[in-house]
Structure prediction request, 518 residues.
Amino acid sequence: MTRMQRWTAACRTGALLGCGLLLTLPAVAQDLQPNFPVELDKKLAARASDVNEVTMNKTMLKFASQFLDSKDKDDVQAQRLIQNLNAIYVRSYEFSEPGQYTPEDLKTIRQQFLGPDWNPMVKVRSKKGEGDTDVYVKMVGNEVKGMFVLDAEPKELDMVYISGSIRPEDLKQLSGNFGVPNLNLQKSSTKESK
Amino acid sequence: MQSTITNSPVASISPSRDGFRDIVERHQSRVYSIAYRILGDCGTAEEVAQDVFLALYRNLDQLQSQEHLLAWLRRVTVHRATDAYRRRASRVEFAADEFSEEHMRLDGTGSAVSQSAFEAGMAPNIEQMVASLPPVQRAVLLLRYQEDLLPKEISELLSMPLGTVKSHLQRALKLLRTKASRQRKEVLHG
Amino acid sequence: MVEFGREPHDSENDGFDPELEAMFEQELRTSLQARPAPEGFVDRVLTRMDALPHHEPAPWPVRTIRNPLVRGAIAATLLLSVGVGGYFEHQRERQIAGEHARQQVLLALRITGSTLQDVRNKVDGNNASQQDAN
Prediction:
């Protein structure tokens, strides 16, 4: 076998191996830089009296992680949390009065998480007007690869979309540092208040 | 530093931060689209698109008009995207396929997470077919049908002989027509 | 304007008529309209731009100095100071951009935490009312 033939064979083998590897990865290219999936966010921002929006994709998360302080407890926790993430999007809107978003708006948002990958983990509906809550988790195989939280109150609407590997212990780590409760991802909780 | 882009051949462009922001906002879709459709991968396309704008920022004082800027953006984006494609040749083919599968699923189920209303409305088959073309043909096709340039303009932009541009376009269109015809037959016959 | 490809297309039609061909090209144009850049793209470009070193030249003294050795020394010192100053300026800007990014991450995690805390409270509240009802 000539050198050229050996090189061609090696390339072919490498390509086949790469092919096999990539075919097992679910939509990696699409997940690396996901967009914030909710289309209403600009409309909601326009109606809000106070807006907090954070958009961090993988590049920004990597950049930010270089500046997290290894001596600060919160920073250390943050570093551990974001290392496997592709993106974090946060949209937090406060309104000066109720009624700035409609049940239809919430329905539109929820519909975007009805796909086969997304599982509703928490669904709380309040008939007393205290607000509705949804948590959706994106499962790929047995791994959590994304999370969407929608917390709707009369004068506040919060949305969090996290893309990337999230482990239950990651969420537990937030507890005490960022005030995150222990969400049991093995069991879904679908409740409606009566 | 303050001046705005004009069409005067002698005016130089050196905008303020806000001015540069305007430039990026005005051209981000164009640059990103070209990069994405050549590369077939969101992440790399954004990296390339960001690099193009940073290079633009460094070279702004050499650009003398709006037309010049537009041509510069198109040329540099195509070159950087095709360079990036060549460096990642085998991975990109699969990224294009994954994008296509994801897109078919988006349209098929209608309920997966959609990135934007724009994407929900796009015809996935055409973009899937374009993604399967060789990168140079893809680039020429994009400049023709996304950017609406004439073959002569494409030839000048890419410093490619006019005959070569026309040949790429012909072959690309022929390939796309054949694929489209095959898909129509598959749909009709189940 | 002569529509591209009429002549070659006629000879390589492969059974496609000009009308279908025109429709196909129109469909291509529609499908290949520029797609929106990802959310936050402009901000990310500007953040990277802010971290770039500035290329503003250092100010030159107005009076010329005749001694070539002195001129050379001044030129070398100025170049060195521009280089060193430019480096520190770049570092400073990078630090500012990095600190901003760090604050954004911490804010995102804080809001995530408090949102999930609200979720927990609502779930617990519902559990309690259901138990009371039972």
Observations:
- Chain C touches chain A through 37 residues (CB under 8 Å).
- Residues 1-15, 57-62 of chain C have pLDDT under 50 and may be disordered.
